[in-house]
(Atlantic silverside) hypothetical protein
Amino acid sequence: MFGNLFEEEGDEGSSLASTKGRIVKGGDEPPPPRGRSSLCGIKNQGGTCYLNSLLQTLLFTPEFREELFSLGPEELGRLEDKDEPEAKVRVIPLELQRLFARLLLVDQQSASTADLTDSFGWNSSEGTNQHDVQELNRILFSALEHSLVGTNGSTLIQRLYHGTIVNSIVCKECGNVSQRQEDFLDLTVCVCGVSSLEDALWNMFVEEELFEGNNLYRCAHCDRLVTAAKSAKLKKLPPFMTMSLLRFSFDFAKFERYKETGRYSFPLTIDLRPFCEQTDEEGSDFTYELFSVIIHKGGCYGGHYHVYIKDIDELGQWEPPEEDCKPTTLTTKVKEEVMEACESKIQDDDPLSVLTTLIAQEASKTVLVDQLGQKLMDKIGLSWNKKFRKHYGQIGKFLQSHSDVFMLVSNGTRVALKANPPSPVAEPPHPAEQAFNCDPLTDPEPPSENPKSKAEQGSHWFDLNDSNVTSIRESDIEKQFQGKESAYMLFYRKTQLHRPCEALNNPQYKVPSHLIQMAQEENISLQQMREKSEATNNTVELRLHLASSYRLENGALQPIKESNGCISLNFDRRKPVGDLRITIYQMQEFWEGDMALTVAKSLPAGLHLYKTLTDDSVSLYSAGIYTNTELFVWNGREVFGKTVQTGAEWEPVLLNVVRPFLGEDADREMENGMDFDKSGGDFENRGPGLKREARGFAGGSTLGQVREALGEPKESLLCQEHKGGKGREQEAGEGGGASGWRVFPPDDMQRTLKELSLKDGDALLVLEPQSFDSSVFKLNGDVVTVTTPSDCRWLQVEFRPHLKGEEEKEDERKKVKVPATGNMLLCEVKQRAKEELQLQDPPSGAQFCLRQLDCTGKLLPPVCEELSVREAGVRLMTTLTLCPGNSPKASQLFLFFTVGSAPSAGMEMDIIVEKNCTVKECLNAMLNAVGLEGTCWHLRRLDWCEEVGEPLMDEDVCLSELKIVNGETLVVAEGLLPPKGFLKLSIWMCLDPKHMETSVNHTHSSSAGQQNLGVESSDGAHFQSPHFCSRNTPEPISVGLVEISDEATLEDLKTQVLTLPALQDVCAPTSGFVRLWQMEGQRLARILRGPQVTLRKLKLSSGADLCVQHLQKEEDLGAKQVLLNIKMGIPGEKSYYPSEELVWDASHDSSPRSLRTCLAAHYGLSPDSLLLAKHQPEKHTWEEISNWTQQVSKKKKKKKAESLLGAPFHLKDGDIIGVKNLLVDNNRDFITMEDKQGQQRLRDQAEQRRKGGQTAASDGAERAKSRKAEVPLSISVGVFR
């Protein structure tokens, strides 16, 4: 009954539905208008689909609707007076009138039944309970009858739905007739055992029931038991006939309810004359036509209702279903051309462009949330997860982040664009759009249409499924004859009930004026809400950049200092570009000349211009303008006399221009704000190095033009950082070395930066020929090596007296440069920095330590001061922070930790422990540091997404063995350490029946039985019982328990099993002489294969039962080798020779022919002489295996051979295969005497259950699923007598 109870869940649809409250701005979105059908649905309160279906049927029963509307306030009262003490207000009919008026006249997609259910006396939880619509039909009619007592509508239900049945009993001896009349509002007809409605009515009203034999009738006239015949006839037919189908039945054998899903047909027009008592009247009085079918989808314990309804008054706009619309060749060609034109504009790499185009191409301008992912895949050939999820996240989050573009409508079931305004140029609306936007309050003129088109419309049938209303054809009703989704209630009306012409296409027909006024007021309010919502949803915030505040530098527009060049403007994007231009003109009073509006984007190099808005008649939405779009306002040609290049091909690139640096130029360059390469020279000692300067260049500029812009001669070389030299460059930075650069060849001088794939932040080294005279730069082929001496480098040390939790003044931070080399110890660097900063160790004994900063400014773990700069991995010409704390030694680890949950940024605690300490020792140290006690704690690591991950299982392992590195974060989690990956397995062993006999007859003791578990018989010979793995083996005997890791192999498990005391006498040279079975319900289920396969891969769980078997020869079964028990039938008898084990290799061929060939080779017989069958021990039956695969004509596709490993045989280890030799045995029946006895036992058990025995009843109660208690349905009605 719930809307999506039987719907399949979609990965992407669920995420969309869960974000419906976040995509749409605000929570007061107005209800959407009516759909293309112009009919109104009803909202589902959670489980009220049964109520919605019945209400829609009553609404589209015009006679019922008009009779209800004819009752005025003078009879029913007014809802405004319902709280008055002595006022008799008939609330249920009044609320039903209001609901019908809203469904007919208010322009909304769906109406609410909350007021109506409140008048029923239902609470909020009643709206979520599931009920039967047939039960509701009777209770609602009863409530209406009680509510309308004393009014002109007191006989409403009786006049429209009341009928009479005459039950007659005729005495076969005296002919006396005894009759009894029975009233009905609906006929309950049987479904079980009949195939159609006519058959069910025939059984009810035509066939007679005879009272004879032991079931005689006492005749009042004869005054004795006599033979009689009972029959029933329809005496009075109502104008509207309701048929309730008995789809739900009870199985007394299984003690559970079930739903009849077999085919049950019913006609669109039915003649009830054969079932009536009097047939002298005209035929039209007996003819009915179908106008409503309530459908139930689901089972007997839950489901969903919806209704097919014929629109008698043609109030809705019927359109052929989409799947039935087959366009002509010309239409298809035009449509394909339009689609190709639209698709040419789609940028497959831009999800925003793809989704907006996809939604815009829909006829309704909306897409169902559940179908958005599928439509996207149909459009671009890839799903969202494969195409966009890595870069843009889930589709729901993407729509949420673009809430200015998308919104959810139709109660969150559809996604639409925030606005889709019509073009300023007036165009005739599409017929579908006319239907979509029609106003139900205006009297529409009936459209002129020929009879043929009207006949093709399927007589105005609609599917009303809660809020959704769609058109269907009459032929669709046949789909509801059978299945889990099938007809449940049928509503017929007499064919002589004709509607007046005034009622056609007129929803206001006979609606009271006060209800029309109420609907008009609600429509006005809804229109105002929609206009306000549309204005809010279509208002975009634009960022205007004025040309007077920018200058063109380095290929991009740079803002002029001390000027506010960006202005925010809120504007309705449904308006044309011309209106925006006029608005900006009015804002800029002193603007002279032309004004161009160009879409701009802020890039690292500066502001760049793209597309200029030239068509003033196009709306901002059509022009692709969204919230936070940047627009550049200029004359369209130049900025301060410089021509500006626009377009994506001219996007500026911000490059780091690197030049050789000489020490004597340091002061001058530093005054100019020049940055210096962190892998280059030293400034303190005026040594040689590299200097960096960020410069922007137009992406369409050639490399030669870049060289000219830098003022370099043509002989200069331009180099790019060598991609393969990353490791060497890092090594150089760590304390002296070299970095590699690749020289651009002369041909690249004519290529643009875009063609060379240069990106923002790439480095460009500029060298003059004389630069190679020094020892710093060396040219080897096309690679330049930059070497800088390590003794002329430095480290900057910044003093930070407070770490966290304390405010820090700017003047407390002090910086100092310390000369350093790659071989200098970090303790010397710290000591020099302390001397320069004039710091002393705190009196409390605390120390200072050196720490690095990451790119986000977070402090990294302290560096080990016993190491040199190079050994510690510290890059020269970087900054170290001197702060309070101890530095770890070379044998120690500095760890962050938190208690209870994943750490927040800056909230971790830290500790220093030895690398060789165990996990337990580290945990105790952390607990002591935070003052916690107890043993219910354990350590966990963080996973890749910085969340609490897997626990450290082995507390006795050293941290270094677990590869815990310096600076790693651990979490102290509460609770005992989860159990390790060990399995506790129960080991069993089955006895051979012969040895069981010996054991019982001679020893009568369990000790003898255990001795016979070994592998030696009385004469010392080894045996391998063929009965051992049979399904008919006696009860197994437990031999012990084994505890083993799930990472152990099967060979390890077999070795450990053989160490059990009960198996000490088993002699197995290798593990191959032992076979292990997994048991299910005391039966052997499968053989464990693969000596080196881990128990985890074998999917063994703790508590599993295993059965051990000793073998005479070594065995290593493959994955497709099946161990079968084969039994040859004894000729002329219903029994078999003792079974044997056979290994059948089905890896290459698993067909019946392969098995038959294998058995023929085993017995030395011809394959054609063998007849095979599989034993079903649970049913005590045999399933014969066909001889050969069916021959297929060569012209047809080759049929795939039948596999015995699949349906219907599913051969597996231990299955019993019966074999008949047809050369000597003519009996083709595999059944034995034991099978017949077993079948009789099954029949006896079934008979006991059928009789409802106490044992069967208790078993059935145990098997029954626990279900929610059924709540009785009721409607509270006031007293009006």
